[in-house]
Design brief:
Domain BTB: 2-45
Organism: Spizella passerina
CATH topology of the domain at 1-72: Potassium Channel Kv1.1, Chain A
CATH architecture of the domain at 1-72: 2-Layer Sandwich
Mean pLDDT: 77
Biased composition (Low complexity): 90-99
InterPro entries: BTB/POZ_dom, SKP1/BTB/POZ_sf
Number of strands: 0
Strand content: under 5%
Helix content: 55-70%
Order of helices and strands: HHHHH
Low-confidence stretches: 81-105
Region (Disordered): 61-105
Distance between the termini: 90 Å
Structural class: mainly alpha
Largest sheet: none
Shape: rod-shaped
Length: 105
């Protein structure tokens, strides 16, 4: 009943509010009644929900991998803490350009 009420709401207002667990059912109703706009809306919503779940799984997997790598190398410093300024390979003196100007004078 709630699904059909949501369907009617969409037909009359072009808006619909559907809980995540009812999106598949709304998609089936829309396809059965050949309401292409609602079908597309439900399909896009399902796609967004799946992308969100996949992103969460990817983040979880990456966090597990980094924890496993840290556990495998107990003395290793995490990459974020090991970052330093890149070495200066330009041949400039440690004092900088002002010191070079003084050396030439």
């Amino acid at each position: 009943v709630a699904d059909f009420a949501s369907f009617l709401e969409f037909v009359y207002t072009a808006r619909v509010e559907v809980e995540e667990d009812r999106v598949q059912r709304m998609l089936e109703i829309a396809e059965k009644l050949k309401c292409l706009d609602l079908s597309e809306t439900c399909f896009q919503l399902k796609r967004q929900m799946l992308e969100s779940v996949l992103l969460e799984l990817q983040n979880f997997s990456e966090s597990q991998n980094s924890e496993e790598e840290s556990a495998a190398r107990p003395g290793a410093v995490p990459a974020a803490k090991a970052e330093r300024d890149p070495p200066d390979c330009s041949g400039a003196s440690p004092e900088g350009p002002a010191a070079k100007a003084k050396e030439k004078a």
